[in-house]
Amino acid sequence: MRLFDSVASIKAAIMSNVMRHFDYLVIGGGSGGIASARRAAEFGVRVGLIESSRLGGTCVNVGCVPKKVMYSCAAHAEYINDHADYGFDVKLLGFDWKKIKTSRDAYVARLNHSYQTNLEKSRVEVIGGYATFDRQGKVTVGDRSYSATHVLIATGGHPIVPHITGAEFGITSDGFFELEHLPNKTMIVGAGYIGVELAGILNALEIGRAHV
Prior knowledge:
With about 210 residues, the chain is of the alpha/beta class. It has helices at about 1-15, 30-40, 55-60, 65-80, 95-120, 175, 195-205, and strands spanning about 20-25, 45-50, 125-130, 130-135, 140, 145-155, 185, 210.
């Protein structure tokens, strides 16, 4: 039994050092990267997808999806405030931020799992970690190297923190979805659609004014 265990261990060690080759290698597990990987797999080619974080990218994890949940939450608060105009004696007695955060995060986690399941069904190999290129054009993730006939870079973007005094005390829109408690007051720097949407949500939840 020990001999077989040793042989298996040696084989596993050898395989871990063998460079894997894909016909199509996607770097980035967001909406675009996943869609491209699954479509390529339909043609019977060997596809790999590298992602360092949760599957789904910005939209699913810190963008459209959780924002729409919070928008719906804020809309309910406004409905309650408007009920008196329609003859209903309803009062907003409190709001549990932790409750909506827990529900929202669980919903996003289910979507992450769905992406993983769909990739497995499409026979796309998911590789966890950060991808870098070496001088020979090979892709490295941790201590593993991969080669590919075609590589798609679909890494998306991220918020940029301005280099100004005090910026280290603020958070980005990504950080909004990590808040464990509602702040009493909020100053939003930037009046783009993301800033305006978050300001509207915070104001509707009556936490104090959100200044843009």
